[in-house]
Amino acid sequence: MNSTRLTRWLVYLLIGAAIAAVLWSYSSAPTAQNDIPISQLAQEIQANEVAELIVAGNGRDVTVIYATNDRQPARATVSSVSSIEEVLATYGVTSENYSDDKPVITYERPSPWGNGGVLNLVGIFLPVLLIAGFFYFIFRQAQGTNNQAMSFGKSRARMFTGDHPTVGFGDVAGCDEAKEELEEIVEFLKEPEKFVSFGARIPKGVLLVGSPGTGKTLLAKAVSGEAGVPFFSIAGSEFVEMFVGVGASRVRDLFEQAKRNSPCIIFIDEIDAVGRQRGAGLGGSHDEREQTLNQILVEMDGFDTDTHVIILAATNRPDILDPALLRPGRFDRRVVIDRPDVRGREAIFRVHLRGKPVANVVDVNVLAKATPGFVGADIENTVNEAALLAARRNRKNIGMSEFQEAIERVQLGPERKSRIMSREEKELTAYHEAGHAMVSHYLPHAQTLRKVTIIPRGMAGGVTWYLDEDSSFMTRSKFEAIIATALGGRVAEELVFGEITTGASNDLQQVTRLARAMVTQYGMSTEMGLRVYGEKQELVFLGREISEQRDYSDAVAEQIDAEVRRIIDSAHQLATEILTRERDKLNMISQRLLEVETLEAEEFIALMEGKDVPTPPPSGAPKINLPKPTEAGDRPRPTLDLPPSPSPA
């Protein structure tokens, strides 16, 4: 309990005690039903009707006790400083009237808590104190509100001193080049003389650029833990408020704190929230966000070379940042944190597996190869899901089966085994997924199959998994193979059931998107030539593509549609040829899926080649199969036969 709360409770306690004391005083005072004058008291004494006189400690209040029980006590008040005997004597009461000890006069000991004492003063001043306390409380509340208003323009950055670092560079993996860049920043803060001796100037700002989940904020935390200097952290959205001038005021306050604590680091997370290009705001060219950005530009450019204050900022939208923010002298260095490759993913897995009970059969290299496209956040979530599954299954350690299930949960969601499917739906799903798998098996440039299942997962009724390659380039042959594979499910439905369903809706979306991209973006159509059709237009303030400029004629649009249809129709024809020729194997794979519901890559290849199906591995053993792609000469090579394009209209 802090001192403010303790003081408040003490005040409340004292007020309560004063009120209780006053109430006790009035409740404990002798009860007197009526007041009588001294003259009447003298007459009653002379008539022997009074048994006792009780004189209060103040000498003025007298309680009259009568001889008979049928009369209630009365009260009389002595108005002079004389004793009660002297006052009564003036009214004719003599010593003879006190014979037989009637009335007996009793004097009470004076007490500060009696009538006329401190309690009377409390009773007088307590209302005044209560009223004064009420106004004091209102004043304090108003003062607190005023302080909040006065501090509205103060920076909300959180400062970390690095005394107890929780994250270091050892906890960051998969981005070695980015770590080297930031390690140099940390080294400059620790040993600036090493760089100054060569006449070098440390970059004033470092912009961390990368997709969501790649570890930009984690790297900033690592810098905070390694640098050993004050580290100010704030989000870009914390600068701007609805009140004019607040954002700029907070920027000034933040940089003033940084200068006082130099050397230090300022980290602005999601800087695109405040650093977007000026002049595109919906509120005009002079909105609050632009004022905040202008102040950031002034503060960054106004740094002295000796301040040793470095700015770190993170964003996943560098394309929408203001050019003035990115120029040398502000953000001198741009560090790109890309999605990790297979070696990076393996290193990230090892970081997140520290301190966890992992089975000896778990191969981190296999896990890395089974998660292409995963970023650090995905891998951390995968490891956590595997640990939760192992605990749920009461295992002693985390096995390969838990990791496989975790990877699939992260990609598509948990299995929906409770979903009731009719025999017809299961059979339709089995042929659909078998069609995908078989077409990819016979195409040399198709993706490598990993697993096929008819167990509903996420929003999908069945899933055919493939292993993506860590490649930054896609060839025309790969695109054609992907399109043909995606159409394999629809073709299997047509051949077997003579009917089509809505199950291929997502496949058709993927096919249309890829075919149109081949024609309009990648220049993979000989008919349409080497150019891009349809330039994307962006609203910088909104930060997303919401329109596309049509920079071609209606006749060219018809050619594009015809070319897209020709690519899709040719891929559909290729898939039809493969599944028609291999109809027996299509039936075999489908029936096998109906029996076991899931086929791993090794089982599928063994069935296609007529070999014995391998027995399932024991619980906890590796189940993520990574088959090597079949050599080009080991399987047929059907190609897409693109018919000649019609002449332009």
UniProtKB/TrEMBL annotation:
Single GO molecular function: metalloendopeptidase activity
Pfam family name, one: AAA_lid_3
Gene name linked to the record: ftsH
Name listed for the protein in its UniProt record: ATP-dependent zinc metalloprotease FtsH
NCBIfam families according to UniProt: FtsH_fam
Enzyme Commission code(s) on record: 3.4.24.-
Cofactor note text: Binds 1 zinc ion per subunit.
Organism of provenance: Candidatus Promineifilum breve
Enzyme class: hydrolase
SUPFAM superfamilies: FtsH protease domain-like, P-loop containing nucleoside triphosphate hydrolases
One GO term of the biological process aspect: protein catabolic process
UniProt cross-references to SMART domains, sorted A to Z: AAA
Domain AAA+ ATPase, chain residue ranges per copy: 202-341
Region named Disordered: 607-649
Active-site residues (renumbered): E433
Chain sites annotated for binding Zn(2+): H432, H436, D507
Protein family: Belongs to the AAA ATPase family.
Subcellular location(s) of the protein: Cell membrane; Membrane
